[in-house]
Amino acid sequence: MELDITFSCKCSAFLDEVVYCDGPDISAATDEESLREYWKTFICDGCGQEYDAHIVSRMSETDIFIPNIIDLTFDILDHFGQEEVTAEIESTQQLDIYRKVSTDVIALLRYQHHQEHKATLNNILFAQVVTAIEAYLASSFISTVVNSDLLIRRLVETDPELAKRQFSLKEIFTQWEDLKFLVARYLKDLIFHDLKKIKPMYFSVLDIDFGNIAWLFKAILIRHDCIHRNGFDKDGNQHQIESNEIIELVKQCTHLVSQIEEHLSARKEA
What we know:
Layout lengths: L1 E7 L5 E7 L15 E8 L6 E8 L4 E4 L7 E4 L5 H9 L3 H17 L4 H32 L2 H10 L1 H4 L5 H7 L3 H13 L3 H12 L7 H15 L14 H27 L1
Antiparallel strand pairs: 1-2, 1-6, 3-4, 4-5
């Protein structure tokens, strides 16, 4: 899950940071067993003061504690409910959605815009391409795996978090009907915005090797700056994103999508 955390520093500067954590253990049998703890460090841009945040996450609630901070607030940006997870299981439109977004991006690049607006527009379009490929990769994996008993079993056997989850005989019968939902929600919480985890999953479960996608990991880092720093990196340097770079990113993403679709089609026909 993503958390948008805000609070004031002692120097009166305002900190607003978006952080990612895996959230609770959604495969746990009880709320107490679902507890997971995370620690994040925030640094004030104004004075350099460091703040250590303690994040406690259960299926029922999430809390954040930072010592000596009284105006701490946070929002959970993505906590996936039953309707959204169910839609992910049943979705068959991943490819169509990706194609629509990438086509729209190219079309917008062809318009003649004022030069003063170009940097902002390119930031938005670059981020949109990265979001589109992330959504495709996550949704395609979830719908493919969760709708196959064989692939669910392979996932459980190869994923360390699911593999260590032990069910009693009673739980096997009482939770079997909800197994698809449990696995889908686990995957959605786990891999959303984290391609470092989805790449090995594609390989171990679907036998799909992405190859070298350093270009995509780099694009994800730039996307973060486009969204959260208005196109500047943490050192204050502005990303100069040109239209041809966005077009090249679309080409690379589309090539990856085509490879995946070819493998998935072959699997269906086998």
